[in-house]
Structures are given as structure tokens and as C-alpha cells.
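Incident log, structure service

09:12 report received: a user says their structure output differs between two submissions of the same chain.
09:20 pulled the input from the user's history:
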Amino acid sequence: MKKLFFPLALMLLTLIGCNHSTSNSNEVEVEPYTLIDSVFIESEFGDDYAYYTLNADLPVTDNDSLRNNILHWMLADDTEDHVTFFQNERDRFFAEDGDEPRSALESNYTLSEQTDLYVTYISEGYIFTGGAHPMPWYYGISFSKLDGSTIGYDLFDDPEQLIGLISENIRTQYFEPNNTEEEEYLFEPDETFQLPTNEPWIEAGSVVFCYEPFEIAPYAAGMPLCKISIDDLKPYLSEKGKSLLLNSTFQQ
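09:34 re-ran on a clean worker, output below:
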């Protein structure tokens, strides 16, 4: 019996190793990439620098379709050379939008969370090219680990049915906690809103709906958003939504 112990133990370790590799084949790790630069600009309005900042969590995964689709979202269709792409974006900004002192562009692409079935990234930043204030952005995007496709309104059979639910939650989650008066900020305070232009994304057991600046309220109101729990959204889920949201195991 003692002679059989080592071969059996080795076989058991091999099986465990294979199962672990298979279960994690869709896991996304990140390779951080940063590009920070500035250019000194002289103009009739004064002398100062223009700034460019980029931080990106580049995807590292054995799932090729998932990796490619995340990269194409960050970069451009059919583009995988992130160094050349971001350097060209920097050069374009300094040549076109950032050709005045104190202009700035900051972009961040951050892996927010993932389960065994999807991964969510957040894109946020701002651009300032003069004037009263910068123009910010903030939105998320989720990708299916089953085929690498983006996830959005296709989580639902009929997204239009969500308008009332979104309108209610925007008021209770975004405006009331911030002590703002809806009548002062919302363009149509007594009306329900149209669906956000941005596709929704998945975050911490909820789906996030986020409006762009000026979409339903002026700049001072920021980017109104709300998070609606998956439990509350169950009646509206499509088959794709059910398969991704009701069967996921959270990883990080």
C-alpha cells in the first residue's frame, strides 16, 4: 500500500491543478499602463502647461474574445497596440484640443469587478479646453465571459418598461440624499425620463443607470445615476439577463 501512495497523490494533485486551471480560464487580471505628459504653451493669454494623463487596467486573460473586446473598447476596433494608440491620442490632444495653456485631459479605465460570468470596467475622466469648467464623464461597461460581448440594455426584454423605475430611483437615490431640489435641477421635474444614452452596467448585485451631463439636468447636477438591485429587476430580465445575473458567482 505504501508504494501506491505517491503515484495516487501525484494523480490527485494533477487533477486538482487541471480543474483549477479550467475554472479560472475566464478570470481577468490586469496589467497597469500609465502615460503622463505635458507641453509648455505660450499664448497671448499667458504661458502655462497643457496636461495629459492616462491610466488603464489592460486585460490579461486566456479568454481571447473577452480580451480583444475589452481592448477594442479601450482603444479602437481591430486595435491591440495600446502603446501606439495612447501615444497617438496624446499627440492628437496636444495638437488639437490641448493647444491652450492649462488645458487638460485625464482618462482612467479601471477593472471594477468580475464574476465567473461577466467583468465590469469603469471609464472616468475629464477634458478641459478653457471656459468655465471641465467636461467630465463617468460610465461603466460590462462584458460577458461566455462570448466576450458587451452587456447593456439587452439584459432586459423591453428596456422601455424600466423608465418609471429609473425615474423614481434617480430622485430617491441621487437628488434627495444630496439635498437638492428636483425643481431646480431637473429639466422636466414632473416627468419621467427617457432611458440614459449610456448603456447600463452591472455592479455589486445591481444594475447601474447613469445619465450624461445635460441629459436630464444642467451641468451643476452632475451625472445623475441610480443602482437598482437585481432582485427588483427580475421581472424585466431577458433570457440573457437571467443567465448572467442570476447564475453568477462573485470573484473579486
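09:41 both user submissions now match this output. Likely a transient worker issue. Closing.
09:42 reviewer note: Residues 1-23 have pLDDT under 50 and may be disordered. The longest helix spans residues 2-23.
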